[in-house]
Specification:
alpha+beta; 4 helices; Double Stranded RNA Binding Domain; six-stranded mixed beta sheet
Length: 273
């Protein structure tokens, strides 16, 4: 019992220390392509991590959309890197935060998933990993005083032009299919707003399927399939025409975000579960 108490105390102290460390930084940079993957935003990993961290109140930006403040001083930001230790049976993902000198300041727990489809399994594993922030209370304290002169000559993140991916006809991972990673709509008001919002469509009715729902209209015709994530208000959405994106709720209203070419769009949906 004493040994268990000591371990729990150590973990708690470690978490508090990590929170204090991250609170020193004004921005979190999410690379548009992680080193473990062959293409930008593969399995929608970049947009999912950005979305989940933004929900915690963090000021998250993509590596190809850095504000001038970061360009002047990279040490105002930490980079969220994704470590992929997956094998043929289990998807394993850990999010590691590093400062401008590539020094690790925090590492989440290892999230896991045994789902067979890659998009869904990475969604589940990343959500599991970032559950380490379930009690995290981010508040920038402005204490980062590191000078840009200390930055390594190697760029913190690799700039990458996001190319479109072919629609995936199975459980498509959380968020949007992105030819270019612009800002994704966030619940937090500090994030860039969506470019366009379409009008509300007619009522859709949710019917249960494996791992989610299918939305049908009054015809009835299947309009979209939804796949569950670890967050009850976030679904992977895939329309029957192959368009995939993120379905989420804010104050009881449901919204679907997706990319049409390089334009990020947002639809308001009336869904009856």
């Amino acid at each position: 019992m004493r040994k268990l108490s000591s371990i729990l105390l150590l973990l708690f102290c470690s978490f508090i220390y990590a929170q204090q460390e991250i609170n020193q930084y004004k921005y979190i940079i999410v690379p548009v392509q992680f080193e473990a993957f062959k293409s930008p935003n593969q399995y929608k990993t970049s947009t999912l991590i950005k979305f989940l961290l933004s929900e915690k109140g963090m000021n998250v930006v993509y590596s190809d959309k850095l504000p001038s403040e970061i360009k002047s001083n990279r040490c105002l930001a930490v980079v969220a890197e994704l470590v992929d230790d997956s094998n043929m049976f289990t998807t394993k993902a850990t999010v590691v935060f590093k400062d401008c000198n590539s020094v690790e300041i925090y590492r989440t727990k290892e999230g896991t998933s045994k789902l067979k489809e890659f998009n869904a399994s990475y969604a589940e594993a990343i959500n599991d990993a970032l559950s380490s922030f379930s009690t995290f209370d981010y508040a920038y304290n402005g204490s980062s005083k590191v000078s840009i002169e200390t930055v390594s000559p190697v760029d913190i993140v690799e700039q990458a032009e996001v190319k479109s991916e072919a629609p995936i006809k199975t459980k498509d991972i959380v968020t949007v299919q992105e030819p270019k990673l612009n800002e994704v709509t966030q619940v937090n008001t500090t994030v860039t707003t969506i470019q366009k919002e379409s009008t509300t469509v007619s009522h859709l009715y949710a019917q249960g399927i494996t791992n989610g729902y299918q939305l049908v209209d009054s015809t009835p015709k299947i309009v979209m399939k939804l796949y569950k994530t670890s967050q009850p208000n976030i679904f992977i959405g895939e329309k029957e025409n192959g368009v995939s994106g993120l379905l989420y709720s804010v104050n009881g209203a449901w919204y679907f975000e997706y990319y049409a070419g390089e334009e990020l769009k947002k639809e308001s949906l009336n869904i009856k579960f």
